[in-house]
Design a protein that fits this description.
alpha+beta, 651 residues, homodimer, 29 strands, globular, six-stranded mixed β-sheet
């Protein structure tokens, strides 16, 4: 019934997409009229709505569905917190300076850009897949020039291997690569210096005296961990449970150049799921067992390959590829969420971090990476932070961040316990008393038993700092005692899914964008209704007063049905207004003209096909409500309403 | 039918409220286990929900209702923006230092605290309203001690006058007050130094070189203004319209000590309504005309009085008390919003700023102030920023931030225009040519006409830098020309309602809190359903498996009805669970026991009265849905369902 639409008639053109996003104010460089600041963006009305809808869906999919405890914690953080968490010492990237101009470059990005350019030049000479450079790409100053120079075969292989494990190099190794392969600043052709660490946190100070250094948080996670005791109490002392937070974080990136994919300020959603380290099963894992993911584990990468394995998450956990059910549950749920909001599942993979690549706090990490025109980009990280954070904060502050569980069966243990006769001990051994006690207390069970045996013979000898000291039963007795433990105390492990909403939003826009077959100038964003900024566009023939009551009626009915609509009564043709709203991703439109007023009917237009249907106003509203809520698809809608041929009788 | 409840049986006790909020983790000092940082708070699960619900209601009430354009802009801002906006020079408070310890105090707060303490001491001696200090208040170190010393009558009057216009004093005046009235640091009894300005913005720097100074925004407003051209274009070039933004802002307060009422990091909602300076009418003003507000204008305050005037906003605008309809529209809408979410209308007033009190950018300002235990607190500001911001940014960047309107009727004007014969002019006058042109161009219409007359006589004389220069018609002609203006270009004025959600949230908690008459230990938060963190509590008799299907059924049905519920199956009595949820402000509860399973009935409990009703499960769900949505009140619910006497037949 509905028209076939070819969304691939024109190859994807990033320049066109960016022009559209700029023209329709999805987002724009912040402080643009001041010349802008790299890595900072403002979201306009459609971008704000799209982001708000993605976040609302996230809240429903994760927080509500799994009864997570939501938090809203502070961005400005005293330095001591990030000293403890390790961020002051280790949350850094490696940068190199141009030896002549002093320009600063991120070391790994430099290596990547230069080697990729050389490989592209090589392919060009070999006559392989050398895409012609586009006009507007040539214009970009910062683009690394492809020199059409053929490389030795083993060189090509070496470069490929370096690129496949690029994230695994340390700073000194990156410096070594620059020297070995003659990597220079492509903008100036100058040599670069040794890589140096640059901390990515923005620094400030709190209070009027300037004595309290602070940082803007680079993640929301610490705000969860510091409140762990309160959260546990709120959850009646039970684990597992998760806390969740949506909020702004800041990273002072060295030289952000990739639009929304690498920014200095961003909205993230973070979940901290607290689990018993001895039991990382998940009670809802059976619900997601069957879900098939594209996996790229660390063993494959370390061999210089990026080949994906398609596998159910159930199988991946059973095989030990994914460490446990809880981690597996979240990978599957992340996959569901991303596909649900419109990410192309064929361009979504889960990549495991290599050992050197992991953040300092993580013991394992899988990234959900989404393919886009600049490659595969991490959009969600899913890290096993183990007990790292809770342990270090607890040790630093002396505040226990632990779970105490009553044991069903108390654990009865027996062990040898040394007991000193302190009075006599001091008199007899003098300054050695302390040393002797320390040595005995550090003995294990076997050593204590042996020592007990010797004491039973009358005396036992100890070697302390090279001297030999003799102990007698008068000084020390060792006895077997029974202990009953009825409480188990432990530091939970933390599994952390962490979402960058800006990256998800941008890749979603890329996946949604296409141009109409008959006219490449007519761009469309095929955003699913669940995230589209506006669900229904109301298009009166004109802004004239006679349409006002009908516009009011329709928009009120839609609002009551919970559907967000917008009226476009601007002074252009209906066709132009629809074209504008195709660019805004509005999935449905209803047109109000004189025939509607007379017949109480309304036409309904679908964005992708541009099909139009017609029916009584209330029928159209109930159909569009079902379409937006996802309980009906367009083919079904075509069964419910008549096709509109563009002509309506008006007396 | 429903019980009478006395919410005022016990006087309001802030200590009890704070203990409740802390115990239930509405919010807590941020970084508490590190000793905390003044002015920074984390919101726990109920606080986050309450805030999210207030914000959702705000979005509906303002953004959706008036079709505002939502934005999400950047917090980290380059210094140049705040240099232009005036914040670098003028966004400051006056602080004084303790001359011995170096402790920093905010000057106006110091004066206020010391004078209020003296007045309280005076009242104590006179035997007036001297409340006995509570144990726990005595414990607070920072509390200014009331010295029971009687003051001269004129002194009392003088202090009252100072306090009524405290916000109107400049820094030097505050210094003068300290000297004149012997105001010292109450913590140490040391003298304080001269007031100095302290800028309230947090400073940082952007990028790896440290060369780009930045500030954290102290308001979201600049992010709106810098995007004005894009917003106007998005709105098809039409005004009036409004942009709106919800986001975090930062102010490095000097010594925050007032809980959520004065914090260093906060979530705000700001609306910038752009309006034609020549026409500040509002097309929906008639909808709010009748709304009665409590007003405190600047004339009343300057006389040392704080007496309120009750008046409809229509009358206030007609009388010129409130400057225009747009400002009036927002004051009324703010009033509606606050009352709707549960603020006590008797404790809400609108106070106009005095001249010296206004922010540097404002030409008029009314604050919505909410009364709480520490006095009247500004929770919403509604400022007329006129064309200030758009003009200064436009001047600094050269980017026009203006509206261009096609005039229906072109404006035809005639005026005298001087025209120089430049070739001859230079030859004849040499270096004076420029000077002469400047003088002539600066002439007004009358001067030009007179000069034209003289030229017609053959020559005209000019006085330039003390010399006399003669001009002839050969050098200069002055002619009457006709101008046709078909576009009107102007900088719009901005009316800005600006909401501090933390302050609204805290005052709402105070207004909602009371203790049950029969037991002061049983606190209740009577939050309206629209903002309550949880709408319905589901209380199964126990966590046993047999209740699981019914719990699932009820919570699924509620979720489908759009009602957020929570299950409390913790291991305590039903009474204790209800008491806990009274503290969390949960308005309704349903109990599931063995009788429910057998009879398919359910009881419904109302939080404030503790009344219980009973009926078939689906009836109870439809009643509670109507109650939560506000389409039914409790008295009506009592008509729909039977009273539950606490006994149900079980076979």
């Amino acid at each position: 019934m509905s028209k076939e639409v070819n969304k691939f008639a024109h190859p994807f053109d990033k320049t066109r997409l960016e022009a559209l996003l700029n023209r329709r104010f999805f987002y724009a460089p912040a402080f643009e009229i001041y010349g802008g600041v790299a890595g900072l963006y403002d979201y306009g009305p459609p971008g704000s709505s799209l982001q708000a809808n993605i976040i609302a869906e996230w809240r429903k999919h994760f927080i509500i569905e799994d009864h997570m405890l939501e938090l809203d914690t502070t961005i400005m953080t005293p330095a001591s917190v990030f000293e403890t968490s390790g961020h002051v010492a280790r949350f850094a990237d490696w940068m190199v300076k141009d030896t002549k101009t002093g320009d600063v470059l991120r070391a790994d990005h430099l290596v990547k850009n230069v080697l990729e350019a050389r490989l592209a030049g090589d392919r060009e000479v070999r006559g392989l897949a050398a895409q012609p450079q586009k006009e507007d790409e040539k214009k970009k100053k910062k683009k690394v020039k492809n020199l059409a120079v053929q490389l030795a075969d083993e060189k090509v292989k070496e470069y490929d291997t370096i690129l496949a494990q690029l994230d695994n190099y340390s700073g000194p190794e990156l410096g070594e690569l620059c020297r070995k392969h003659g990597i220079r600043n492509p903008d100036t052709d100058n040599e670069v210096g040794e890589p140096q660490q640059f901390n990515l946190m923005f620094a400030s100070s709190i209070g009027p005296t300037g004595q309290h250094p602070g940082y803007l948080r680079p993640e929301t996670a610490q705000g969860h961990f510091l409140n762990f005791s309160r959260l546990l109490e709120f959850n009646n002392g039970r684990i597992p449970f998760a806390s969740a937070q949506i909020g702004r974080s800041f990273r002072n990136e060295i030289s952000p150049r990739a639009g929304l994919l690498r920014v200095r300020e961003f909205t993230m959603g973070e979940i901290e799921h607290y689990v018993d380290p001895a039991d990382k099963r998940h009670e809802r894992f059976h619900e997601v067992r069957h879900i098939v993911l594209s996996l790229l584990d660390r063993h494959v990468q370390i061999q210089g390959s990026t080949e994906l394995t398609r596998m159910t998450i159930g199988e991946a956990v059973d095989k030990g590829l994914v460490a446990n059910e809880t981690l597996g549950y979240f990978l599957a749920r992340i996959n569901l969420f991303l596909v649900n909001i419109g990410i192309n599942p064929k361009r979504l993979r889960f990549r495991q971090h290599m050992a050197n690549e992991m953040a300092h706090y993580a013991t394992d990490c899988w990234d959900a990476e989404i393919e886009n025109v600049s490659g595969w980009t991490e959009c969600v990280g899913c890290a096993d932070r183990a007990a790292y954070d809770l342990s270090v904060h607890s040790a630093r502050t002396g505040h226990p961040l632990v779970v105490r569980q009553a044991l069903k069966e108390p654990i009865i243990t027996e062990k040898e316990v040394p007991e000193f006769n302190k009075k006599v001990l001091g008199k007899t051994l003098g300054r050695d008393a302390g040393l002797v006690q320390k040595i005995v207390w550090e003995m294990d069970e076997a050593q204590l038993l042996e020592f007990k045996g010797e004491l039973a013979q009358g005396s036992a000898k100890l070697s302390a700092e090279g001297r030999e000291i003799t102990l007698t039963p008068e000084l020390l007795s060792i006895e077997r005692k029974t202990f009953k433990q009825s409480i188990r105390e432990f530091t939970p492990n933390v599994i952390e899914p962490s979402f960058g909403f800006g990256r998800i939003l941008y890749t979603l826009l890329e996946h949604s964008f296409w141009c109409r077959e008959q006219d490449v100038e007519r761009g469309v964003l095929s955003l699913p209704p669940v995230v589209a900024p506006t669900k229904v566009l109301i298009v009166p023939l004109s802004a004239k007063e006679e349409f006002e009551p009908l516009v009011q009626e329709v928009s009120t009915k839609l609002r009551k049905a919970g559907i967000f609509s917008r009226v476009d009564d601007s002074n252009t043709s209906i066709g132009k207004r629809y074209a504008r709203n195709d660019e805004l991703g509005t999935p449905f439109g209803v047109t109000l003209d004189f025939a509607c007023i007379q017949n109480q009917t309304m036409t309904l237009r679908e964005r992708d096909t541009t099909d139009q249907l017609i029916g009584p106003i209330d029928d159209v509203i109930s159909v569009v409500t079902a379409l937006v809520q996802g309980s009906m698809n367009w083919a079904e809608a075509c069964q419910r309403l008549a096709v509109y041929d563009g002509v309506q009788a008006v007396d």
